[in-house]
Amino acid sequence: MKKLLILLFMLGVASSASASIDWLTSATSSDWFTAANWSGGVPSSTIITNVRTYQTHMNTTYMPIILSGQNADAYQLEIGGDNDVWIDDASKAKGTITLNSGGTITTADYFRVGASSSSNRWGQFYMDGGTVNVGTYMAVSQGNSTTNTHGFVYMSDGTINVAGNLIFCNGSTASGMAYISGGTINVDGLLSMRPFGTVVPGTGDAPTTLLDITGSGKVVLAGDQVATVVGYRDDGWIQTGGAEFPDEWIIYDGSTTTLIPEPATLCLLGIGALSLLRRRK
What we know:
Oligomer: single chain
Number of domains: 1
Strand content: 35-45%
């Protein structure tokens, strides 16, 4: 009897892991913790679930927002709207989640921004502070060879900790962009970065990748990954403000490789200060 109970418990956990709790089209607010917005109640760490914010299940006005002091827990988290072309059209749905300063997102497994295995999805993640903790990997656009998935990350502050890789465009027709103007991303490494190209609106999607680091933003990689970063930089996949990432902005200190724009910015400030001193003399 005891063995039977254990078996039933394990089957229950396995089935819940493959279930989903979707954001509803009848959402009444943007607060992640409004139970009426979810098909199965507010996701929490006690519910092993794949949280989807696909537009077909979500109100276009009220996108999920994690406010200061709130901790949004999920086993897996995917963001994706029902959009099959690359075009900034209001009639085209984009799945969106916003993390405000002081809030937290925690996933035991992956966090995918713009993802699907069989459909065209467009996902956006806005982060102006707070903390994201990801148990395995974070993907900025992930699909298969037949889907046009698009992922966009806009980060101005806060910290993203990934116990694995930051993956871009894991699919031949995927497109992923991450604009890091502030805050820190800590990951094991960068993976599956694809050529940065030009997409003609409404004509389909060419593989497009961009990691754009500006301002006080930085990305910290585990170990010596300078050669990998330089390769991605030389192919135009890592940039800063649309320009190539200079060598002096790739720092290896013997334990981690850091991509950070500040050194050049500080040099420019120093040159400016010297010029002012010369004028005073």
